[in-house]
Structure formats: C-alpha cells, structure tokens
Amino acid sequence: MLRFAIAFALIGARKLVRGLRQGLSEEERYRVADDVVYRLEKHGDVWRLSEDLPSTRGKGFSTPPNDKS
Questions:
Q1: Number of neighbouring beta carbons within 10 Å of residue 34
Q2: What is the DSSP string of 9-65?
Q3: Which one has a higher pLDDT value, 58 or 37?
Q4: Is the dihedral of CA 48, 41, 52, 6 positive or negative?
C-alpha cells in the first residue's frame, strides 16, 4: 500500500524536483517507491511495512478533521 501511495504521489514530481523537465514514467515512479520501501524496511521495519493492512470491512470511512479552521 505504501508503495502505491508513493508512486501515486510522484505523479506531480516535476513540480517539486528542480531540473526535472518531464514527469516520471510509471516505471520510474514504482522504482523510486520500491527503493523507498526497501530503505525503510532495511532499518528494522519500525513502521511494520511487512504487515497486512487491518480489515476495514464493516467500518465506515471517515476523513480526518480539517485543522485549518
């Protein structure tokens, strides 16, 4: 899930990375995401990246409150 989220976030990388004239291809975004996950897991997996996500079946989805009131 983290890999997908990182790859999705990198769609707009061109706006954030100085000198990047084109956006990253899908393959490049997933390579970066894989490397990020690998490096995080290399440091003991304190984020529990290897665990499955908890089931959300039967639970409602809610968005966090907006702190910018």
A1: 13
A2: HGGGHHHHSTT--SPPPHHHHHHHHHHHHHHHHHTT-TT-TTSPPPP-TT----PPP
A3: 37
A4: positive
Instruction: Give the residue carrying structure tokens 């954030």.
Output: 16
Determine the Cα–Cα distance for residues 66 and 16; give it in Å rounded to an integer: 24
Query: What DSSP character marks residue 46?
Result: T
Instruction: Give the residue from 13, 41, 51 showing the smallest Cα distance to 29.
Output: 13
pTM of the model as a whole:
0.58
Biggest CA pair distance of the chain: 46
pLDDT tens for residues 21-54? 888 899 999 999 998 888 888 877 776 767 776 7
Indicate the residue type of 6.
I
